[in-house]
Each structure stands twice: as C-alpha cells, then as structure tokens.
C-alpha cells in the first residue's frame, strides 16, 4: 500500500493490483456502513487505486491506513446481479479468432466467468468488470466506432463492460442486453456499482 | 411546486442551468458538475433571496436574453456584463425587478467568461441525483438552453436579500495565478518539467470548456513513458495528456482518467480559473 497526496482534501491509495484495491474498497464500505469511517465525500476505486476525496485530514488517513487489517476479497459471499445477454455482437468473430475458438463458443466461455465490478468511469453507470483471464484479453478496436448502442457488451484488455447509453466507443462488441444499466429515475440509478458481483446469462 | 416560468429569447453561445452540483456519485462515473464559479453562483442567489444552492443560469461569453412570465426579482453577477431590462440599462450585481413579459438581457461579458443569472425561487427543472446542474460530460441534467425553451421557476422564499446594495466589481487579474500542491503523480515527470510547471508562463487555451481549462506553454516531459492504469480524478487535478500541456479539471471532469496528475489546484482558485478568458497568461504557484 502506498498513499499519494491529492491536494489538501484528498488522497490516493495505491495497491499492488486490482484485487487488493477491491479488497480495500470493500473494507472502506464495511467501515462506512458500520459507522466507523471518518467523513469522506467520495470513495472512488479504479484499476489498482482507491481515491478518497473530501476528507478533513488526509495526513491522518495516510498515517492510519497502513495499519488497517484488510481481509482478502471473498467474491463467493457477495450477492450476484444477473445480466441476460444475447451474444451476437459485431466483433464476435474477431474475438473468437483471437481466442482460437468457434464464434458460438464465445458465449459459453464468457458467460461462465464470475465477474466483479472493479470500478465505474467513462460514463454514468459504465462498470469495468474484471474476471476475464489475462490470456483472453483482447485489444481495443484500431478504429473506435462513432456510435455504440446502449446495452452493447464489449471487451477491452481484460475488462468487460456494458454501454449504459449510446456513445462512441472502441471496445470489441460481443453481445447486448436489454437491461437498463443506468436510469437516474431509479434507485439505485446504476445497476452495477463498484464491488458488485455479476453473472452474464447467455440468452438465445 | 412551481409558480411561473421564464422563456429563453436568446440562449447565447452556451447557457446552462447550474447549482452546486451532485457530489457523492463519483464512484458511479458521475462528475460533480455545478457552477464553475461557485462563489458567483452563491452571491447572485443571495441577491435575490434564494438559498445559495438554488439553480441559476450560467452563460458563457455572450450572455442571454430571458422573458419571465411573471414578475420576478433577478440578479446578474459573475463576469461583468451590461444588464438591460426592455433595452434600458440596469445595475449589474444587484437585484432588479423584472415585470411579467419584460425582457432581461445579460450582454457580452466585458471581462471574465461566465455570467450568472439568478431568479427568485430558482430554476425549478427536475433534479437528477439531487442536482439540477447540466453536466456536459455525463449528459445529466437539462440540456443547454435553446432559443424558445421555457424553464419553470420555483416559489420565492419571500425572504429579503441578505446582501445590501450591489456586488463588488472585482476587476479580473491580468494574469491568472493558480496555487498548486504537487502530486499524486509528480514523480512521473522530470525535474525540469516540475520546474517548468511552477516557473513557466502558460496561456489559457481557447479549447477550454466546463470539463477542463486547457493550457498552452512549456510541455511537461515524463520520466515514465508507460500507460497509467485508470485512477480517480478530483476537481482541480492538473492532468498532463501526451502533448505535455497541463489541463486543469473543472466541474464536468471525468471521474477516472489514465493520464498522470502532476499537481492539484487549490479549491479557492478554481473560480478565477473559470473566469479566465482564452489568451490570459497563467502561472502555477507552488503551495507548501
């Protein structure tokens, strides 16, 4: 764990990898719901860091955090959000050839993975799902699409994500869902928030 | 409950509804948003007897023209500009009564960039995640104003303005000085780059917007060429994209980013950053 200064009201906590960042994030949420966490406006996990923004005394956090006991992530104990997916995306053949499998095997492989929402970003409700093994990582498209429809399921590197709304995007699209990933009128607005466990359920 | 509305006669270059934003949702990819010059937004609200958090209009450079459908107390502040009611000059930075059907105009900013228009009762569009602010990055909140649009007004509190008279007219500085604290990724840059950042002269770029204040000046060279895995970004972060020219993140900034942040601007200086016109000389001054 390394703590880095971010102005006078925030700090960035850098962990060895995404798994450890996820574990720290889970511990922060546990302490917040137990009422033992000092005031913090934003807790923003990312690839291998957690940002704490809107804190009174970042120096005190930086001194105390290294003494925390942080249990490792227990993904099997978390509630699962199921997202029905039709694996019929325009880049399915491309991904299949990179994985050296037949296109109809992509759904089976991908939907058998236990995903976790590592963090959100890019757009409201866009979750970066981890769980895809490194050897199945695929590069972004050389030329991003100018418009990706809402609900499109894509891969970039070892991340999986669903576009919450239509936007430009460079992820390799392998499927789509009809679920609304983001609805400001709903509580909660985001279907997938950091720390959630996700299963993609293949539909025909 | 609303009791009245305003009609947009001239929307201007870019006029949006703003309040103090929607903090607390960054982990979902939602920027804080809200008025770029929060002090000005608070002041115009006080002039009309609103809570400081009421929604106001933020106009960019060119002002806007508004026709209220009922008599309303209004005030224009932020970037100084001519203020007219039915073509006759009235005071900037003071509360004025605008009769039903009269035309309130905020003219071209004579200095600064963003003028704020408050109406007693506040702009009462439907809040999204607790805020009425337009977030141009996330697409949350009402769309930017368009000619002919009609916006609802809330019920005035009936309280008198706690502000007596008019706002002090603060002349904008000839040079923008942004106080910064180094980090979190200052160690990704050469010693020469850190020296250039804090001693060089930059200029505010015309490509600046509500997402970031872009700069032109000495490019900051990195010692670490690799890609930075996405990490959380704060308001005021000085992010350095591959061209080496620092970008100061403003209210609609992305919540995560993959370019290193060399320093963070002190919160007290962000209002001035929002009012710095393109071409303004800019220095970053090292704090503590």
Strand tally of chain A: 13
CATH second-level architecture of the largest domain in chain A: Beta Barrel
The largest sheet of chain A has its strands arranged as 1-2-4-3
The Cα radius of gyration of chain B reads 20 Å
Which bin fits the share of residues in helices of chain B?
under 10%
Question: Could you give the topology of this structure?
Answer:
The complex is a heterodimer of chains A (204) and B (288).
Chain A: E1 2-6, E2 10-14, H1 18-33, E3 42-45, E4 49-53, H2 58-64, E5 80-86, H3 92-99, H4 103-111, E6 115-120, E7 127-130, E8 145-148, E9 152-156, E10 159-162, E11 167-169, E12 172-176, E13 197-203
Helix pairs in contact in A: 3-4
Chain B: E1 2-10, E2 15-18, H1 38-47, E3 56-60, E4 64-68, E5 72-78, E6 83-85, E7 88-90, E8 95-98, E9 104-106, E10 114-119, E11 150-154, E12 176-182, H2 191-199, E13 202-204, E14 212-216, E15 231-232, E16 237-239, E17 247-249, E18 256-257, E19 261-265, H3 270-274, E20 281-286
Structure explained in plain terms:
The complex is a heterodimer of chains A (204) and B (288). With 204 residues, chain A is α+β, with helices and mostly antiparallel strands. Chain A contains four helices and 13 strands. Chain A folds into two domains: 2-73, Gyrase A, domain 2; 76-203, Cyclophilin-like (Cyclophilin), CATH 2.40.100. Helices cover 20% and strands 31% of the residues of chain A. In chain A, the strands form four sheets. A four-stranded antiparallel sheet of chain A has the order 1-2-4-3. Chain A has a four-stranded mixed sheet with strand order 5-13-6-7. In chain A, strands 10-9-12 form a three-stranded antiparallel sheet. In chain A, a hairpin with a 2-residue loop joins strand 9 (152-156) and strand 10. In chain A, helix 3 (92-99) packs across helix 4 (103-111). The N and C termini of chain A lie far apart (45 Å). By secondary structure, chain B is mainly β. Chain B folds into two domains: 2-154, no CATH class; 176-286, Cyclophilin (Beta Barrel), CATH 2.40.100.10. Chain B is 8% helix and 31% strand. Chain B contains three helices and 20 strands. Chain B has helices at 38-47, 191-199, 270-274; strands spanning 2-10, 15-18, 56-60, 64-68, 72-78, 83-85, 88-90, 95-98, 104-106, 114-119, 150-154, 176-182, 202-204, 212-216, 231-232, 237-239, 247-249, 256-257, 261-265, 281-286. In chain B, the strands form four sheets. A seven-stranded mixed beta barrel of chain B has the order 12-19-16-17-14-13-20. A six-stranded antiparallel sheet of chain B has the order 7-6-9-4-1-11, with no helix packed on it. Chain B is elongated and about 60 Å long. Chain A binds chain B through residues 4-12, 41-51, 53-54, 119-126, 128, 165, 184, 189-190, 193-194, and chain B through 23-30, 128-129, 138-140, 181-185, 229-234, 236-237, 254-256, 261, 264-267. Chain B: Pfam families: CT_A_B.
